[in-house]
Structure formats: C-alpha cells, structure tokens
Amino acid sequence: MGFNCGIVGLPNVGKSTLFNALTATAAAEAANFPFCTIEPNTGRVAVPDDRLDRIAAIAKSARVVPTQLDFVDIAGLVRGASKGEGLGNQFLANIREVDAVIHLVRCFEDHNVTHVEGGIDPIRDIETIETELMLADLESLEKREQALVKRARGNDKEAKQILEIVGRVLALLRDGRPARKTEVADDERRAFEILQLLTAKPVLYVCNVDEDSAAVGNEHSAAVAARAAGEGAGCVVISAAIEEEIAQLGSEEEKTEFLDSLGLEETGLARVIRAGYALLDLITFFTAGPKEARAWTVRRGAKAPRAAGVIHTDFARGFIRAETVAFDDFVACGGEQGARDAGRMRQEGKDYVVRDGDVLLFRFNV
C-alpha cells in the first residue's frame, strides 16, 4: 500500500532542493531556471518514529524497518497552467495522481534566484496555484456535468447522486473556493472521490525560508501560517538549503551538532514527513520479534483484517484474530510476554479498529 505527497509550487521556490534533501540524492536537478524538473521524480523516505526503536530494543530485534512515504517532485506551475501555459497540462496530470499536496512557498529573498512573478509575495503565489487548480477543476466538472444530466434523465441513480455533488462543488468553485470545502456525507464520499478533483486533495503549506529564519520563520512565513490556520491546513517552516546541507553530512553526530549550532531540535524534513503522514490521515501499527521490528501504515479507521492484509494478503484472507498490545503497555511490561503475563494483551476480532501505536500479532489460517 503506497501513499504519496506531491511537492508543488511555482518555479524556483526550492522544490527540487527539498526533494533532493528528502531523498538524500541528487536525483532531481536543482537549477536557477524554470522547469528544470520535467518528469516527476519520486522518492521514498522513512517516517521518523522513536517508538519503533524502543520496540526493537525491547524485542531485541535483529532488523528495524520503518514505514515509508513517497514524495513526488512535480514540475513548476505558472499562471495560465489551466490553459496549458508552461508545462501546465503535464503538471495537472501529475498532481491528479498524488494523494495529498505539499505546497512549497518561497519565503526567502535572494537576488541570485529569479522569481517568475518578479518579487516575493507568498500569498500571491499560493493564490496563483490555487486559482489554476480551481480553473482546471471547473473546466473538468462543466464538461462532465453535461453527460451526467443525460444519464440522470434516464433515471440513473448513480448519475443523479454525482450530479448533485457536482452542483455543490461547482457553486464553490465559481465562488473562488476549492473543492475540499465541499460538505460530503459518508455515503457520498465514494462518488466525490470518483471526480478526482485537484482542489479536493488535502494541502500542507511548507514555507521555504532563508537560513537565518529556519528556527522561528519570518514575516513571509507568518503570513502563510495565518492563511493556513484560516483554512484549517497545516504549515511547516524549513530552509531547504539547510536541509540539503544536513542530508550530505555523514554521521548522526555531525547532523546533531549542525542542528544545535542553528538552534534547531530536529530537521525540518522530519517535520515535513510527519506532517505529510498526518495530512493523509494515516496511523502506524507495529510488529515485533527477534528477527524484525517493523512499522506499518494504514488509514485511520482501518479494521484488523485490513491491517493484516497490509503485511500479506493471506493474513487478511485467513484472519482469525489479532493479539494486541498498546505501545505504552508494551514498553511498561517489557515486551510481548510481559504484557501477556500482566493481562495487557487483548484478543481482538474482525471488527477491531486498529489504533495508532498498536503492537499486533496476527493469527490466521489459510
């Protein structure tokens, strides 16, 4: 099961630099000109989670395997992209394929790095991209609406439901608001997702600041944070240049010393990864034994058989039960056997909703 976040933004905001740091590679060329990223680069990164290391130490696991998240570096968008300007059509197709959007916003001044709009204004930049995405969604829905009307006249129940949702979304888009603001009931969720709307995707704003502002941000990032708060969106401040330097350091000790010298407790990348993970409404469960301690990912609300299926389809098909220990109990009791002896290990069936931090042992029969 793969989950991915697309890194989007105007040209020259630092997308490729951030991507390179995230994946600790030079896979994406970072250059001072628009469209240096043509084909979207994809990198898979480990999700930082101190709980996994603690579980592995208690279980005396020989191998530790973190859960992972994919990041996609998407070509820069420019004004008019919805009409095909720049690499607009390709940009829109690439973003349609991701699960969530990390909107990287330039919040640094640098006369050596050109800005396609002529000056630094992160709110304007955000609105440029949001407008292009809304225009693309508007055009897509207006085309689809005609076909849905014909099907609805033929008494097609599914078409009627989708058409009603399309009407609500179009009203929002025409009012200058993104599709994610649409109120969707649980029984409408599937129909809404079928529309594959660009502005329906959850968004995390990442402010790329200069090195001196990495710890506390600046006036530009503060403006973005205020906008994000008003939208109910997340916001993270980083310096992509610093993150790229850190990624090139050899040891954890060097990285820690470098962070300390800048007044930072952790890398901005760690915050971006965790925020991206939360943005997708994901949770982590663990399996642990002498051979391996491993973190696994499921969407919040997943039941035990679905979680079992993430490990192997046979686990889901032949699911009997899940032996479950909460992370805190696993640590407090010194591991699986201690939790079992203390009565903290539970036997859960098919209807059990997996919780973040559960340490699970699946029983199955195929």
Overview of the structural elements:
- With 366 residues, the protein is an alpha/beta fold.
- 42% of the residues lie in helices and 19% in strands.
- The protein has 14 helices and twelve strands.
- The chain has helices at residues 15-23, 50-59, 88-96, 122-153, 157-174, 189-194, 219-231, 240-247, 252-262, 268-279, 304-311, 313-317, 327-332, 336-341; strands at 4-8, 41-46, 63-65, 68-73, 100-106, 203-208, 234-238, 282-288, 292-299, 319-325, 346-348, 359-364.
- The strands form three sheets. It has a six-stranded mixed β-sheet, sandwiched between helices.
- Helix 1 runs parallel beside helix 8 and helix 4 (122-153) runs antiparallel to helix 5.
- The radius of gyration is 23 Å and the shape is flat.
- The two termini are 22 Å apart.
- Mean pLDDT is 86; it is low at 25-38.
Helix/strand/pairing class, anyone?
alpha/beta
Strand order of the largest sheet: 2-4-1-5-6-7
Radius of gyration: 23 Å
Helix and strand pattern: EHEHEEHEHHHEHEHHHEEHHEHHEE
Please mark out the parts with pLDDT under 50 across 5 or more consecutive residues, or reply none: 25-38
Helix content: 40-55%
Average pLDDT number: 86
Distance between the terminal alpha carbons, to the nearest Å? 22 Å
